[in-house]
Amino acid sequence: MKKSDVNGANELPLYTYLKSQKGFEGFDEHQYKPLLEKMFSEADPDWAKKPDIKWNFTKFIVDRSGNVVARFEPTADISKVEECIKSLL
User: Fold this and answer.
1) What's the CA gap between 8 and 61, in Å, rounded?
2) Is the pLDDT reported for residue 2 higher than 90?
């Protein structure tokens, strides 16, 4: 176990690949969405156009063949994640 970079010059190749397959498409409606958008906008006006992982708990779903089929941001309802996984079983 170690801390791993998911963005930037030292990001692990796994995250480079995952982000190249499924970029950031926005936060789902959530109580923290306005706060997150404000925080990221203040730090970088172009944040929403970048595929970077924005916050902890971004989830990528990879099928049995290694295809990245979905990306869920931390604001996603976990039932949507579960539904996606079940559809691939």
Assistant:
1) 22
2) no
Is residue 54 within 8 A of residue 40, CB to CB? The reply is yes
Predicted TM-score of the model (pTM)? 0.89
Q: What is the Cα–Cα distance from 37 to 47, expressed in whole angstroms? A: 9
Three-state SS at 8 = coil
Coil, helix or strand for 60? Answer: strand
Model confidence band, residue 47 (pLDDT cutoffs 50, 70, 90): very high
Assess contact for 21 and 68: CB atoms under 8 A: yes
| Cα angle 81, 29, 68; round to 5 | 35
